[in-house]
Amino acid sequence: LYTTAQRYIAGGVSSDARRMAGVPLYVDRAAGARLWDADGNTYLDYVLGQGPALLGHCPAPVVEAVTAQVARGIVYSAQHAAEARVAERLCAMVPSAERVRFNTVGSEAVHAAWRLARGFTGRPKILKFEGHYHGWLDPVLYSVHPPLEAAGPADRPAAVPGTAGQPEAADLVVCPWNDLGALSRLMDEHAGQIAAVVTEPVLCNTGAIEPDPGYLQGVRELCDSHGSLLIFDEIITGFRLAPGGAQEYLGVSPDLSVFGKAMAGGMQVSALAGRARVMDAISSGKVAHAGTFNSQPIGIAAAEATLRILDEQRDEVYGTLYARGRELMRGLAEAAAKAGVPMLVDGPGPVFQIYFTEAPAVRNYRDFAATDRAMMGRLHAALLDQGVNMVPRGLWFLSTAHTEADVAATVEAFSAALSSL
Ligand code: PMP
């Protein structure tokens, strides 16, 4: 297997788990909160496909919906009834959603949102924040990892490392996060040119960082006074922090938001949702929105089954996610304290981050970049040896399939991994 992958797959492996440790993880199958590898090892999984498996891997209602849909058509590339039902449900769940368009992956939905913002306002520029990740398409890529260092200061690299160039970079303005003064200055400097400000409402790509109290309200006000749209990239936070995403969790409404990952139980569906007055630029044909696989029926069937559960069983689902997440956060912090390792654990709970640092808090990308990430890489490898799979940078995703016993076993494995370092 390893030799075949080395020979035929660019880079030799298709997954980044263990790559950092130099030992690839080949997944054989996944169910509930667990993964099995090709050698028969079992892992408690806190990567969950980078977030999508919020109900655990292969939840029965999603498997049933997908199986039933396969018999009714795998591709339509046309409108269908389930698409309208999912759009209706999504608009009922997400506070700022009045109209929806579906795509396949998150990067596409971000691209659609940025295009719409430019078309709607007639302005060229997008303002984004340091360390926030919005997908891997060239116009949205830079200031992200890998390499993480490219997510650094608010300057404009001439090109993304490893790409031919970055012609659109001139239309990107990059700002430090959690700093209203910096945002205000940049919006004044680019007055009349910024189509939209885009943010991860809770930063999850370089740490798991909630905005300072009042910060996003301030961002909302600055957008309104400058005539710029506010876009929430809820690809991670959507349906994970609350049925209505981070906008419900934090009580701030964007004009547009994008969803992906958790909305379809692991199937590939993303959504651009927003205020009718903006989204109607798509309806009127002023702004194009295309894609062969948009609203693909299997993904939509999975989204319908998933969103029904998240909506109708919200107390149970979110009660479990927060309880398990916070138990695990507490357990890991105690294990580190017992081992005498300076480690910070922070985040909402359904997703959280551990950092090796002596700092009392991590509040933005620059703080994150100052933590000991080499040590995190070693921990990642040591945890795999103990049967625990976390996102290599130290991020943990919870699912409703994780039990109290899983959390206890994870804390024990974590202590063993720390000692082995
Ligand atoms: N935005 C955010 C906040 C993300 O975390 C990601 C993926 N990790 C994306 C966009 C891109 O989504 P995808 O990988 O599905 O294209």
UniProtKB/TrEMBL annotation:
Q: Name one GO molecular function term.
A: transaminase activity
Its cofactor is: pyridoxal 5'-phosphate
- Recite the UniProt keywords alphabetically: Aminotransferase, Pyridoxal phosphate, Transferase
The UniProt entry, under CDD domains, shows:
OAT_like (cd00610)
Question: Which family is this protein grouped under?
Answer: Belongs to the class-III pyridoxal-phosphate-dependent aminotransferase family.
Please identify the protein, giving its name as recorded: Aspartate aminotransferase family protein
Q: Which organism is it from?
A: Nonomuraea guangzhouensis
